[in-house]
Amino acid sequence: MGTILIFVCLFFIPDALTNTKEWTNFKEKFGKDYKSTLDEQRRFSIFQENLKIIEAHNEDYRNGKSTYYMGVNQFADMTQEEFINRLGPARNMDISGHSRIMDISTDDGNIPESIDWREIGAVTPVANQGECGSCYIYGALGSIESQHFLKSGKLINLSVQQILDCDEYNNGCIGGWPASVYKQIRENGAVLSEDYQSYQENVGQCQANGTLFKGIGYLSVPRNENALKTAVATYGPVSVEIDASYLNKYSGGVYFNASCNANMANHVLLVVGYGTENGQDYWLARNSWGTTFGIEGYVKMARNRNNNCAIANAPTLPIL
Ligand SMILES: *[C@@H]1O[C@H](CO)[C@@H](O)[C@H](O)[C@H]1NC(C)=O
Ligand SMILES: *[C@@H]1O[C@H](CO)[C@@H](O)[C@H](O)[C@H]1NC(C)=O
Ligand SMILES: *[C@@H]1O[C@H](CO)[C@@H](O)[C@H](O)[C@H]1NC(C)=O
């Protein structure tokens, strides 16, 4: 009798019902508030589709067909198309006109096998860019903050909002390049975050030009993963541009997508180290999607797999 009852129950419970609890948890955890019942119904149905994708992918992960697993985060009520639109247009990264190419080529054998600059406190905390396409500012400022720490032993937070408001070389919340942020700071300076209005997720009136880091230099790392490794090991955290179109569901492991775009980028990360996990080489990168994304806000991107997702195409770093 008992067995039959269980069978009947499983058989008749529709997906919609089994996912209700997950939906409630999701809304609560990420503070989701929908405009109307209709809107919520639509988001719930997208959420359920995403759960199916996550489950199927994680089955592949368990069977060794993928090196990373997926999970529910703040993007789980968005379609893939909406997420890609949110990232903004993908761009080809020819940064040769922006900066000098760094004079390093390959690993000379003295470069460590793994490194994590967080271990000595050289990396500022994970932030959340929210609805504004300001990833390039988080990447660029993150690299300056780390360089400053490595020179002075002091960790400071620079104001992302001040760059958004005062920058002349990028496109505010539409997007930009780390190299152009270095150019802005070289000419107009930066300010500490405590000395400027808090982050607003949009561009406002420029309230004050900066005085910090005026005159800095910046370099492009040669476009290959060996040079990037050398740069990260010898200089510290480096900002990189990637194709992040399918990164939204990443939860852990080493992110690799064979179809990832090798030339176009739509997102910026801060590479703070590298290593190897379960035989997979990875770049350890800080993202700016809050700590609910990935591994406490970090992602391990495939390394030495033919420049996956274009990670070594446009690395840049400031010279303080
Ligand atoms: C930098 O900002 C983070 C939060 O984003 C905060 O936890 C930390 O204390 C700040 N550091 C300094 C030196 O102000
Ligand atoms: C910042 O500098 C620019 C360029 O020098 C200038 O046009 C602008 O008025 C300055 N803004 C403030 C708030 O000082
Ligand atoms: C990998 O990327 C391709 C397109 O670039 C996409 O169609 C596919 O869904 C992605 N795979 C995963 C598991 O996200």
TrEMBL record:
Keywords: Disulfide bond, Hydrolase, Protease, Signal, Thiol protease, Zymogen. Coiled coil: none annotated. Residues 23-83 form the Cathepsin propeptide inhibitor domain. Residues 1-18 form the signal peptide. GO terms for biological process: proteolysis. InterPro entries: Papain-like_cys_pep_sf (IPR038765), Pept_asp_AS (IPR025661), Pept_cys_AS (IPR000169), Peptidase_C1A (IPR013128), Peptidase_C1A_C (IPR000668), Peptidase_C1A_papain-like (IPR039417), Prot_inhib_I29 (IPR013201). Residues 111-319 form the Peptidase C1A papain C-terminal domain. SMART domains: Inhibitor_I29, Pept_C1. PROSITE patterns: THIOL_PROTEASE_ASN, THIOL_PROTEASE_CYS. The keyword Protease applies. GO terms for molecular function: cysteine-type peptidase activity. Belongs to the peptidase C1 family. This is Cathepsin L. It comes from Phaedon cochleariae (Mustard beetle).
